[in-house]
Amino acid sequence: MVTKALRTTASCPVETTLKVLSGRWKVLIIQFLLERPRRFGELSRCLGPVSARSLTKQLRELEEDGLIIRKDFEQISPKVEYSVSELGKMAEPILHAMALLGEALESRMEKSSRTSK
Q: What does the record give under GO molecular function (predicted)?
């Protein structure tokens, strides 16, 4: 099964990546799952102000696109764990580069706000 993001024709692979990762929480979900597998409640606490409905939707889309794996432990007290797939691990250097860019941008904005005072 492929999500709407992948069904839409993209003009280049970068656009495909942006479509798959678009979503308020997807990049952060992958970032937290790169650290280690997590359960739904733990992901929810990591993300903060995310609704259960929104988190569920974005987890399903990431799973459908092959970036994460959902493991159901099939026990009486339901236990589900999410982890990053091999395909999802390819996002790690991208997220690292985004973090470096973010730090540089924050530093620049900080310097700019100090000089404008």
A: DNA binding; DNA-binding transcription factor activity
